[in-house]
Amino acid sequence: MASSRQQILSFATSRLNRLPLSVGHRGASEQWPENSILSMGQAVKDGADGLEGDLHLTSDGEIIVMHDPSLDRTTDGTGLIKDRPWKGYIDGLRSKKEPHVPVPRCRDVLAFLAQEGNEKVWWNIDIKMNNSPALLFSKFAKLIKDHFPDRDFSSQIVLGLWHPKFLPAADRYLPKFSRIHIGFSLEIAREHFPPQTVDGYSINFMVLSTVEGRLFVKEMQAAGKQILAWTVNDTIEARECIRMGIDYVLTDRTKVLGKVLHEYETLGKEAVDKKYEDEVFNTWSRWGRYAFWRTLIWMFLTIKFRQATEQLNKEVDVVMA
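The structure corresponding to this sequence follows.
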């Protein structure tokens, strides 16, 4: 049966010469407070085609946009988000990074997407494994129904899923929304997110740049799936993404990636490749650094995946009224 989901990853207008599209990782987060409306707006000004952000539920049921499960690193508040209320606490916090902006709610980002001129800006929501699938997605669906009853966001939102336990909840509460698997392990991607279950794969660039990773890119693109690479802040890595045929590049440095893509658009691939023909991607120092971080992050995320599996297996499906 054909999927009724919006094929959002084909929604954005392709660049010339089959170049990847730019996605602002937590907005233009190198320069501005991450996940803030200010950061997202600047990413769009820098030429980003899409945005990426993370959701968490507060103790009083508000969905806020923040990467960490705690408030400590990025705000002047403390504690776990799930243990702190929006009203009377989080709503008064400000980012540690200047210019010290408020913490955005999910509804604030939806309002940003609904603004005139942002119709083709899309949002890749990173759904962390510590969330409750049914609770988060049912509240998200209700939020849209209550605050944006005449707006169809299915052409602007991609659900990014780390764990397969979120697939049934996505089918139940947000069936029209496109979804991708976010991950660091090709084994998990193949075993738990076969092509028929998702519309694409968002995989760490260090993993995709391996021999196995490059084969994965070709295999999944041949199956009609889009490939996103995260997080690419180095211009050499950005040009390697283009050589690999990556479809979307997530970056903290939206202005820098915009300049890289603009150079290809104006000069053409052949001229740019010639300009950087002495640029070497495969160096011992790079592969040594990649190997170290791949091993460390793989161990950490594998443990997190197993812990999440145990927790999610215990979860009772909560149906929102």
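The first strand starts at residue 21 and ends at 25.
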